[in-house]
UniProtKB/TrEMBL annotation:
Stretches assigned to the N-end aminoacyl transferase N-terminal domain: 15-93
Family: Belongs to the R-transferase family.
Keyword Cell division: no
Domain N-end rule aminoacyl transferase C-terminal positions: 176-319
Transmembrane listed as a keyword: no
EC code: 2.3.2.8
Molecular function terms from GO: arginyl-tRNA--protein transferase activity
PANTHER family: ARGININE-TRNA-PROTEIN TRANSFERASE 1, ARGINYL-TRNA--PROTEIN TRANSFERASE 1
Record protein name field: arginyltransferase
Species the sequence originates in: Suillus discolor
Keywords tagged on the record: Acyltransferase, Transferase
GO cellular component, one term: cytoplasm
């Protein structure tokens, strides 16, 4: 039985900005705008996939569509082609540095390990000259390299300094995860005030309903069997050192959040997690779920250095903020450099200068579409009755009507027909 997507529409809003203020602070004024919001009771993974590709994101069960035209730091939806992705030299070094640490430890740990194995740690003699010493560089395999140091992938007889394990589990609460979240927020984001409920609301609760992944072959044990919301758990010697909060959807793995123990900061675990999530999407694709092709990396903010790094993963694409068609990031850069707000399909709509241009023209939604957008009329003994939203009591209230119109407009015709409002 298909999953029914249900939620409550919310209208436009604004808030302070966390991207252009000083580290650990937000802007002093409300300069980040949203076209619409949506409190999701439940969503099919297919519907949320479509929402992401129309510029929506979720924070717990709250979904929102940024208003790029009005915001100080426009947030462009970015996706990485996980099938074509080839890690750069610096990204390969990140993988290799972490694998080396897990297998051999720090330099001092590595020396002790070699002594235990009866191997001298003295420098190797120089290679002899000539063709015999030349070797072709090894062919890099993303999935092989990303799993090379994991305990489930290495030989049981291998001698390693640390035990590293990565597992997927449903998005659930634990004191261990909450403690890591507190540490990360305090040390990295200078945000010391977070309750268990804050953590649950932000990173545990999800409206996504799990659905089976239609593999055409029997997948390896480490791959998920269902679409839905997950926590990717990173453990080093049994200690939880990082958690990747991800949504696994029919066409992409969607990065929601990543938190880690700052004592491992020098290993660039955030960048490593993006590579790992791209590999996960590729592995799911290669196991027979061929619609899985991308890593949805959230938002690319050209004016914010801490979000601009996402452009280093290639080939990446940005969604046009008006038509939601995809453009290679490299082709978008000249406009992003020139304009605060860049429209790629209609560049004449681009805007210079930091000032908010104000509200656009009133939202218009055709009567034909409103006849097809449904709202819950009643619920009795598990049975739901629905009616067209323009016949509901919500429609008679001017404030509610504006919220409905804003949400329907931001969702687009197709999605608005697929979601039942309440």
């Amino acid at each position: 039985m298909p999953v029914v997507s249900v939620g409550m529409p919310l209208g436009p809003g604004c808030s302070t900005c966390g991207y252009c203020g000083p580290l650990g602070e937000r802007s002093s004024t409300e300069t980040s705008f949203k076209k619409a919001g949506f409190i999701a009771s439940q969503l099919s993974c297919r519907v949320y996939q479509k929402m992401i590709y129309r510029g929506w994101r979720r924070s717990g069960t709250y979904c929102y569509a940024p208003d790029l035209r009005r915001s100080c730091c426009p947030q462009y939806t970015i996706r990485l082609d996980a099938i074509a992705f080839k890690p750069s030299r610096s990204q390969r070094k990140i993988i290799n540095r972490w694998n080396h640490f897990v297998m051999q430890g720090h330099k001092s740990e590595a020396s002790n390990l070699l002594l235990l194995q009866g191997i001298s740690s003295s420098p190797k003699p120089p290679k002899s000259e000539g063709n015999a010493s030349k070797r072709d560089p090894p062919i890099f395999s993303l999935s092989t390299s990303i799993h090379a140091a994991e305990s489930d992938f290495i030989s049981p007889n291998a001698t390693v300094r640390h035990t590293f394990k990565v597992t997927l589990e449903p998005s659930t609460y634990s004191e261990e995860k909450y403690a890591l979240y507190l540490l990360y927020q305090r040390e990295v984001h200078h945000d010391p005030y977070n309750t268990p409920e804050d953590f649950k609301r932000f990173l545990v609760k999800s409206p996504l309903i799990n659905e089976p992944i239609p593999y055409t072959t029997s997948p390896p044990d480490h791959l998920p069997s269902q679409y839905g919301s997950f926590h990717q758990m990173y453990r080093l010697d049994g200690e939880l050192i990082a958690v990747g909060v991800i949504d696994i959807l029919p066409e992409c793995v969607s990065s929601v959040y990543f938190m880690y123990d700052p004592k491992h900061d020098k290993y660039s675990l955030g960048k490593l997690s993006a590579i790992r999530e791209a590999s996960l999407a590729r592995e799911i694709h290669n196991a027979g779920a061929i619609s899985m092709t991308s890593l949805a990396m959230g938002f690319y903010i050209h004016s914010c250095q801490k979000m601009k790094y996402k452009g280093g993963y290639s080939p990446s694409y940005l969604a046009d903020p008006e038509k939601f068609t995809w453009f290679p990031l490299a082709d978008c850069i000249p406009q992003l450099e020139k304009y605060r707000y860049a429209a790629f399909v209609h560049p004449e709509n681009s805007l210079e200068g930091p000032q908010d241009p104000g509200e656009g023209p009133p939202v218009h939604v055709s009567e034909e579409l409103l006849d097809e957008v449904m709202v819950i009329y009643s619920m009795q003994q598990g049975a739901i009755s629905i009616i067209p939203i323009n016949l509901s009591h919500q429609w008679n209230d001017e404030y509610n009507r504006e919220e409905i119109l804003s949400c329907v407009n931001a969702l687009g015709d197709e999605l608005a027909r697929e979601i039942i409002f309440r």
